[in-house]
């Protein structure tokens, strides 16, 4: 009886093992077949993908500008696109997608096909300031984009009403320390670059300049011209006409080095070494765009930006050519995300 039981157990074990083997073999075969079909599909798809990259661009390219037509971001993009189109042999269309301080257009490109036909040319504010200002900007500036290059920089100037007694940064610092909380500065609104530059100046020089937000840079500059507010930070094209007409006095430029646009204007860093900030414009593609396409856009764009006539046109708009590369732009975004997050926190500005 015991012998029969042992024999039954061995036979049962053998049958179970055999069943398991038969079960594994079909699954293994199915896996092999699936893998083979996948490889075959990829091999069929790969030539078309390579051809698409080699023939790029074969249709018009759209450059999304997340700001309104006529603004600084838009004018830089249009000057660039006008030269880029003939260089790549396709029309380049500027598409203004505005809203939420640039978040709408930026998020649109983040979700666009990764084929090189939808690019983003944006000011730094959307990429490096908005993520600190908005709880949910709708995109991740690092993981959602493939940096291509910096295109241009547009310096900001610290300007004052001519009747304001301080004519230099040293005089402004001395006066502000004598009158803490008594000197106002105008901005285009909470969280804007000229607001945050004032916060930077307060921190770097140990001042208490009082922020007065306006609805736009033009309104802020107008009240400084009229003497309602003594000082403001303004973009080069926004304030230089007033400077040239004698309606505003330049205290300094916020860039690290003097700008060729106004070589006689001192930098704020010459008197305050810890203070410098560039306003820049960068070209991005959606993350995952094939590297050959990125490389082609970079190569042609670099040639375009080297043209003297484009540099001259941008200079007339208050901007300088700044042709960078993907690694430089990626580092710039990462570094400024940290810097502006700190400054936004100091300012207390938020936008829901």
Structure description:
This protein is an alpha/beta fold and 352 residues long. It has 2 domains: 61-154 and 279-347, Bordetella uptake gene, domain 1 (D-Maltodextrin-Binding Protein, domain 2, 3-Layer(aba) Sandwich); 156-270, 3-Layer(aba) Sandwich (D-Maltodextrin-Binding Protein, domain 2), CATH 3.40.190.10. The chain is built from 11 helices and 11 strands. A 6-stranded mixed beta sheet has the order 2-1-3-10-4-11, sandwiched between helices. Strands 7-6-8-5-9 form a 5-stranded mixed beta sheet, sandwiched between helices. The termini are far apart.
Shape: globular
Number of domains: 2
The total strand number stands at 11
Structural class: alpha/beta
The CATH superfamily label of the largest domain reads Bordetella uptake gene, domain 1
The CATH class designation of the largest domain is Alpha Beta
Poorly predicted segments: 1-33
Beta strand %? 15-25%
**Count of separate DSSP helical elements:** 11
Rg estimate, integer Å: 29 Å
CATH topology of the largest domain: D-Maltodextrin-Binding Protein, domain 2
Distance between the termini: 82 Å
What's the architecture of the largest domain in CATH terms? 3-Layer(aba) Sandwich
Query: Helix fraction?
Result: 40-55%
Strand order of the largest sheet: 2-1-3-10-4-11
Largest sheet: 6 strands, mixed
Task: Describe the protein's topology.
Blueprint: H1 2-54, E1 61-65, H2 72-88, E2 92-96, H3 103-110, E3 118-123, H4 124-133, E4 145-153, E5 156-160, H5 169-178, E6 184-187, H6 193-205, E7 210-213, H7 217-226, E8 231-235, H8 236-244, E9 249-253, E10 280-286, H9 291-305, H10 308-316, E11 320-321, H11 326-347
Parallel strand pairs: 1-2, 1-3, 6-7, 6-8
Antiparallel strand pairs: 3-10, 4-10, 4-11, 5-8, 5-9
């Amino acid at each position: 009886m015991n012998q029969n039981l042992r024999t039954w157990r061995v036979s049962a074990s053998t049958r179970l093992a055999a069943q398991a083997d038969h079960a594994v073999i079909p699954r293994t075969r199915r896996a092999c077949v699936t893998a083979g079909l996948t490889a075959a599909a990829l091999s069929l798809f790969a030539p078309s993908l390579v051809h698409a990259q080699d023939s790029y661009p074969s249709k018009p390219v759209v450059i999304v500008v997340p700001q309104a037509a006529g603004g600084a971001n838009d004018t830089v993009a249009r000057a660039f696109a006008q030269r880029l189109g003939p260089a790549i042999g396709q029309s380049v269309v500027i598409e203004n997608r505005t809203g939420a301080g640039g978040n709408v257009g930026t998020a649109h490109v983040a979700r666009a096909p990764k084929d090189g036909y939808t690019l983003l040319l944006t000011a730094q504010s959307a990429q490096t300031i908005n993520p600190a200002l908005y709880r949910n900007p709708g995109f991740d500036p690092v993981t959602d984009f493939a940096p291509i290059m910096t295109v241009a920089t547009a310096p900001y100037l610290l300007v004052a009403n001519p009747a304001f007694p301080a004519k230099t940064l040293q005089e402004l610092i001395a006066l502000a320390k004598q009158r803490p909380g008594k000197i106002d500065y105008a901005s285009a609104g909470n969280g804007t670059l000229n607001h945050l530059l004032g916060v930077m100046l307060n921190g770097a020089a140990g001042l208490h300049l009082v922020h007065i937000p306006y609805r736009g840079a033009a309104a802020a500059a107008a009240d400084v011209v009229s003497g309602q507010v003594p000082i403001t930070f303004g973009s080069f094209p926004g304030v230089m006409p007033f400077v040239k007409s004698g309606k505003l006095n330049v205290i300094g430029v916020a860039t690290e080095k003097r700008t060729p646009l106004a070589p006689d204007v001192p930098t704020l860093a010459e008197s305050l070494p810890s203070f410098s900030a560039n306003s820049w414009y960068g070209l991005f593609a959606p993350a995952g765009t094939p590297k050959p396409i990125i490389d082609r856009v970079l190569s042609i764009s670099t040639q375009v930006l080297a043209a003297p006539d484009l540099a001259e046109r941008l200079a007339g708009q208050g901007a300088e050519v700044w042709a960078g590369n993907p690694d430089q732009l990626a580092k710039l975004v990462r570094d400024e995300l940290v810097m502006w997050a700190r400054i936004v926190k100091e300012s207390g500005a938020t936008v829901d």
